[in-house]
């Protein structure tokens, strides 16, 4: 008849060395985050909140957000189709930083744009 070997600790006890492995893994993960500067976690901010769309000042710099249920006020216009900024510093947000629309809806370069 086979008798199991007796051990001095229970079968569910934590084995020595496993805690050191877990600690090393955590330290390694923290080092990776610190060295990459959290570059994997890119944050982008929307130009407008939900239920709004962006508009730009006619003949001047600046922008605002208008409720989807409203039309832009006088002196403001919708962005041309396909050239609407969605997030801060996206392609179209950068583009419109130096341009605007004139009173006829033509894209013009702002005079003070450097």
Could you characterize the architecture of this molecule?
With 114 residues, the protein is α+β, with helices and mostly antiparallel strands. 22% of the residues lie in helices and 18% in strands. It has 2 helices and 5 strands, in the order αβββαββ. It has helices spanning 18-36, 91-96; strands spanning 52-57, 63-67, 76-78, 99-101, 107-109. Strands 2-1-3 form a 3-stranded antiparallel β-sheet, with no helix packed on it. Strands 4-5 form a two-stranded antiparallel ribbon. The termini are far apart.
SSE succession: HEEEHEE
Return the structural class. alpha+beta
Strand residues, percent: 15-25%
CA-based shape: elongated
Q: What are the low-pLDDT stretches, counting only 5+ consecutive residues below 50?
A: none
Distance between the termini: 92 Å
Main sheet properties: 3 strands, antiparallel
Radius of gyration: 30 Å
The percent range for helix content is 10-25%
Please write out the topology.
Layout: H1 18-36, E1 52-57, E2 63-67, E3 76-78, H2 91-96, E4 99-101, E5 107-109
Antiparallel strand pairs: 1-2, 1-3, 4-5
Question: What are the main properties of this structure?
Answer:
114 residues, alpha+beta, 3-stranded antiparallel β-sheet, 22% helix
